[in-house]
């Protein structure tokens, strides 16, 4: 029996000030409502414009459950459509990316569409004369998604026709993307490689929360980062890969005080980041020639400002995390209530030394891959949570760490780095966006 | 004298050491400069400026192995086990004069985690060098047939 559908009050009841009900992670109906309301009402990351460098280039993605395709048109503009033929619904593009040439051609009956989505041709067109075809939606070609914003080459879309505008939705949080892009001496990023993909048998929100969970690394990652430090201390000098590796693994074992002081900044609408004053990315060694390039491009002062900003994880609500200082974006793609596809993308800093790209690729395989020992620690905890939450002994997940009773929602603030406030911030946004377009509140069934 | 049979025997023994979890003996098969590489792209040439699932030196492999036995390694409770099913290795180079030995072996690999069992298939490429009268691994490369699929945890060595 439907408990939550069309029932904003019941959904609101899942989120308390500093607790959330386990149904947000385990109830398939709540998952369906997220797909139906939360994702369409939010601005979702689709891809990067460098993946669409030439006319005819396309990428495919999903927003919630809905398949979409983005394409570069002959005039250079980027368009986003639902990935379904207006004839009988066949997906127009099936690969993750490619080049379609001058038009998309449906593989079923060969209807074709320009790369701006408009209908180009139908075989035996005469058969439609006098049928009223021109009055149908099919005559308009591929269904367009109107709300698309390309921000510094990052493509975001909102499926709902009405809702919060892009600028209001992200606000100051875009400063993390700015900082990542500014780290290129040319102010440009490029996607050159496929992402690392990692299947998680857990709810997508567990991953998102973990991005600002600073109380787990020294515990859960003692197994991986802790062992790395131990082996290195014993055997240093025996390897060539390792120094950079140790710089990447080592800081995961930083003590609570380090994370407390490094701080968390929250922003309205569920965004926020760890690593305000300091972060685990602070002490990577210099890459020869890079600072010189940055100073030449931006001037002494600005170059140091850009490189001095070493934010750790920035959560863009609902489902991406950006790591500006290592040029990585992780996309937590919900598949089912207990299944999440993680895609970890590396962006190359255009014009910067190869060494920086090498480091970003190394970070990605050390931390974000199915072969990453750090990843093994985290996934194990998510799987155990997904199992443990079935318990009826206590149906509430506790997010009370450093809670203050007067916490205002939708504000910007800098707080203690071990606070669970960013998780509370996310759940406030979750309740807001999932119920935003629901019908008038219906009384919750008793 | 290193023959084609020496190479084949070496590859079978290597898989056997993994299947019986004789980790230290397995590590000892590597040359000090040896690498273990699992590419993420089709016919990948560059392990450094192209993305890989793994590209590790001896010290990093040692970290993995010590982690497997760690008291707080929760993803190894219960411990995983593995099984290699190998096709006869195809000898690509057997040149004792130049000291180069290469083989490519088609495999099916199984890894367990509790009650679940994951299966992978692909090709293992061995690049071997003689050290004294023994062969050592300079590079072990694993090309999975579905390298680009989203996997769950892969915790042992293929
Ligand atoms: S379904 Fe696309 S042309 Fe018929
Ligand atoms: Fe973690």
Automatic annotation (TrEMBL), chain A:
An annotated Gene Ontology molecular function: iron ion binding
This protein's record includes keyword Endoplasmic reticulum: no
A Pfam short name: Ring_hydroxyl_A
Residue ranges annotated for the Rieske domain, each copy included: 44-123
Keywords from the named record: 2Fe-2S, Iron, Iron-sulfur, Metal-binding, Oxidoreductase
Gene3D superfamilies cross-referenced by the UniProt entry: Naphthalene 1,2-dioxygenase Alpha Subunit, Chain A, domain 1, Rieske [2Fe-2S] iron-sulphur domain
InterPro entries hit by this protein: Rieske_2Fe-2S, Rieske_2Fe-2S_sf, Ring_hydroxy_dOase_asu_C_dom, Rng_hydr_dOase-A
Keyword Transport among record annotations: no
Similarity remark: Belongs to the bacterial ring-hydroxylating dioxygenase alpha subunit family.
PANTHER family in the cross-refs: 3-PHENYLPROPIONATE_CINNAMIC ACID DIOXYGENASE SUBUNIT ALPHA, CHOLINE MONOOXYGENASE, CHLOROPLASTIC
Protein name in the entry: Rieske 2Fe-2S domain-containing protein
Organism (species): Bradyrhizobium quebecense
UniProtKB/TrEMBL annotation, chain B:
Cited SUPFAM superfamilies: NTF2-like
Pfam families registered for this protein in UniProt: Ring_hydroxyl_B
GO biological process: 3-phenylpropionate catabolic process
Keyword Lipid metabolism: no
Molecular function GO terms recorded: dioxygenase activity
Listed InterPro entries: NTF2-like_dom_sf, Rng_hydr_dOase-bsu
Keyword NAD: no
Keywords, ordered alphabetically: Dioxygenase, Oxidoreductase
Record-stated family: Belongs to the bacterial ring-hydroxylating dioxygenase beta subunit family.
Protein name: Aromatic-ring-hydroxylating dioxygenase subunit beta
Organism for this UniProt entry: Bradyrhizobium quebecense
